[in-house]
From TrEMBL:
This is 4-hydroxythreonine-4-phosphate dehydrogenase. It comes from the Bacteria. Pfam families: PdxA. It is an enzyme of class 1 (oxidoreductase). Its EC number is 1.1.1.262. Keywords: Metal-binding, NAD, Oxidoreductase. InterPro entries: PdxA_fam (IPR005255). One of its GO terms (molecular function) is NAD binding.
Length: 339
């Protein structure tokens, strides 16, 4: 089978992105998983190598059509940010945000054109992107605009083979209940089912969390489980989805392990993510769930405070690349068959 081609973006150059990306690509086994197209300013790539005190061979092209992956080496697609000022390292800046937005836009365009089959990006910074003019609340909604996607999407956190999505995300906690409905819970369950299937799970088993303590205790502590969450689970089951619950938030992970489930659907941002990150924050991955092209990144930030110190760990970025390859293979096969 032909290897998928992965667009790899260095993230915010003011942080640890170039360092962790270089450390991952310096390992031959990681490079050989796929055809790797690095979209970066060569200066920032080399700077990442200097920080990481490691290197690897790569070819350089001006346009994607010049890329030749037959030698098994990554190919650098040369990129220059339009921001007139030099990068300031170790902090959130408009320069870093512009670099991220422009390099990621190239990656999205190439993947939409089926020239690349998935995107793996090193950590970025929302504040820097906002300073660069991004009007969206997060990268997920920006990716939705770029890809013309108007359906439901959510960030999916992955540690090992447990995937966690959420019905509500980047909103104040006091607005969570107002944003819960049978339809929104059902949409999230359906999204998790389709996302896991795109990663090779034939029949995902999904644990749906309750909202209230003890699962509401039959309505004593709240009735959202009765009026919203259970009806959504039942509708999902009628569609052939293996969804179960609702399970109290403090015992969900025990159920997931005991019943060999693959996925969690939470009602709000930190409900499932906290337990998942406790399982393995240093190796977690974030998938842009719902977006029509595969996009994944490490489940941590740009860590400006340790920029240049060569102490950034790589398991999360390494897992992000592996997971992108896994999803990109499915995406590539799907569009090859359609073509």
């Amino acid at each position: 089978m032909t290897k998928p081609t992965i667009a790899l973006v260095l993230g915010d150059p003011s942080g640890i992105g170039p360092e962790v990306a270089v450390k991952v690509l310096a390992q031959e086994a990681n490079r050989l998983q796929a055809n790797i197209l690095i979209i970066a300013d060569e200066y920032e790539l080399r700077k990442g190598m200097d920080i990481a005190q490691t290197s690897f061979e790569y070819d350089v092209v001006e346009q994607f059509e010049q890329a030749n992956f037959s030698a098994g080496k990554p190919v650098l697609l040369k990129f220059k940010s339009s921001h007139p000022d030099a990068i300031q390292y170790g902090s959130a800046t408009p320069q870093g945000g512009t670099y991220v937005l422009e390099s990621l836009k190239i990656a999205v365009d190439l993947t939409l054109a089926h020239k690349t089959h998935g995107i793996c990006f090193a950590p970025l910074n929302k504040q820097a992107m906002s300073k660069a003019g991004l009007q969206h609340r997060d990268e997920l909604s920006w990716f939705a605009e770029l890809t013309g996607f108007d359906g439901f999407g959510c960030e999916v956190n992955v540690v090992d083979d447990i995937w966690a999505g959420r019905v509500t995300s980047h909103i104040p906690f006091k607005h969570v209940v107002d944003n819960l409905s049978v339809d929104s819970v059902l949409e999230t369950i359906e999204l998790m089912d389709s996302t896991l299937k795109s990663a090779g799970f034939e029949q995902p088993r999904i644990a749906v969390q309750a909202l209230n303590p003890h699962g509401g205790e039959g309505g004593l502590f709240g009735d959202e489980e009765i009026t919203i969450i259970t009806p959504a689970i039942e509708k999902a089951q009628q569609k052939g989805i293996q969804a179960f619950g609702p399970f109290p938030g403090d015992t969900t992970m025990w159920v997931v392990e005991k019943e060999a489930m693959n996925s969690i659907v939470s009602m709000y941002h930190d409900q499932g993510a906290t337990a998942l990150k406790m399982m393995g924050f240093d190796r977690g991955v974030t998938v842009q769930g719902g977006i029509p092209i595969p996009i994944a990144t490490a489940n941590h930030g740009s860590a400006f405070d340790i920029y240049g110190k060569n102490i950034a760990s790589t398991p999360a970025m390494e897992n992000a690349l592996k997971l992108t390859v896994r999803m990109a293979s499915s995406y590539q096969n799907k569009h090859t068959q359609q073509g």
